[in-house]
Amino acid sequence: MKEQLEKIRREALAALEEAQVLDRLNDVRVTYLGKKGELTQLLKGLRDVAPEDRPAVGQLVNETREALEKALEERKRFLQEKAQEMRLESEVIDVTLPAKKRQMGHRHPNQIAQEEVERIFVGMGYEVVEGPEVEYDYYNFEALNIPKNHPARDEQDTFYINDNVVLRTQTSSVQAHVMETRKPPIRIIAPGRVYRSDEVDATHSPSFHQIEGLVIDKKITFADLKGTLAEFSRELFGPDTKVKFRPHHFPFTEPSAEVDVSCFKCGGKGCRFCKGSGWIEILGCGMVHPRVLEMSGIDPNEYTGFAFGVGLERIALLKYEIDDMRLLYENDVRFLKQF
Ligand code: DAH
User: Fold this and answer.
1) Residue 261 in contact with residue 226, Cβ under 8 Å?
2) Which of 77, 237, 281, 286 is least surrounded by CB atoms within 10 angstroms?
3) Among 3.30.930.10, 1.10.260.40, 3.30.470.20, 3.30.2040.10, what is the CATH number of 109-336?
4) pTM (2 decimals)?
């Protein structure tokens, strides 16, 4: 019996030694220590042992069982550690690898230009307001002294929702909204998208942006208009910028003017950029027509005002020296990233 015990012990230990994975350990446990295991079977044979020898043999069996259990535990711990080590090794992260870069977006040149213009006028005490892009014919034309069949409508053909509703052709449409809902003094700019049924080319698009300005108060004169736009131009294009007011016609202003700034490339001498003239046209403006004030409920005998409208794309193209407007709408990040 003693020899049998020795044999079981030797075999079991060898089996443990061979077990390379945790699952195998359980097989070993069942084979040797389980209910039908070899050691248990051997115990059943104890009754054949002479009574005086039983305690010694019993003790031997117990010792063997304890030794096997201990060996099993050790092997288990060893295999667990090994498995853990292998897992850690396979999950190693190389912190020296270059990181994945997240592509950051970029503000659009239009947006940069708009924020620049807003910054300048907010600095002069203006409020930034918005108006609807889908607009009543009344606000886009009528209230601006452009009645039906007025020739000025020809230049601003647009997209019609119905006879009374259009996609606005100019941010001047915000003027009457503001005058109807506020009392002077009024000092606002209104940036936003406008529409015209124009073909796409290097300088035209059926959808572009403008920024409207409107000031109404007592005793506002053309001198205020000139001073304001001269200051705006210097802020936008540099302190040496000069402005020139050329007489023009807009139905909603009287008198009206177009404003040129001295070329910020050549300083006014004439270059390719300003097509040799030394001047670059940037906006339209004028004193608000008394009829426009009146239609929106402001007494022209008490108040006067000025207005101006500037094309945002025009500013962006000039400022960043972009020669084709279409580039602004393609949204190619390689292009946009430059500004
Ligand atoms: N709305 C005009 C346009 O789209 C621009 C303009 C000219 C706006 C003169 C004004 C202004 O407020 O006084 O061509």
Assistant:
1) no
2) 77
3) 3.30.930.10
4) 0.72
3-class SS of residue 42: helix
In this model, does residue 159 exceed pLDDT 80?
A: yes
Q: Is 253 in the pocket of ligand 1 (CB under 6 A)?
A: yes
163 phi/psi in degrees, rounded to 5: -60, -30
Cα 172 to ligand 1 centroid, rounded to whole Å: 6
- Decide: 109 in ligand 1 pocket, CB within 6 A: no
- Taking the CA of residue 139 as centre, how many other CA atoms within 13 Å lie in the half-sphere pointing to its CB? 21
Domain ranges of the chain: 2-90, 109-336
Query: What's CA 327's distance to the chain center, in Å?
Result: 20
Instruction: Using alpha carbons, select from 1, 13, 7 the residue that is nearest to residue 42.
Output: 1
Does the beta carbon of 296 lie inside 6 Å of ligand 1?
no
The Cα-based distances of 22 to 13, 18, 34, 35, 285 in angstroms read 15, 11, 17, 20, 87
- Tell me 240's DSSP state: T
Residue nearest to atom 6 of ligand 1 (CA): 309
141 lines ligand 1 (CB under 6 A): no
With a cut of 90, say whether residue 172 has pLDDT above it. yes
Q: Is the CB of 284 under 6 A from ligand 1?
A: yes
Q: In sequence order, what DSSP letters do the residues of 79-113 get, joined into one string? A: HHHHHHHHHHHHT---TTSPPPPPPP----HHHHH
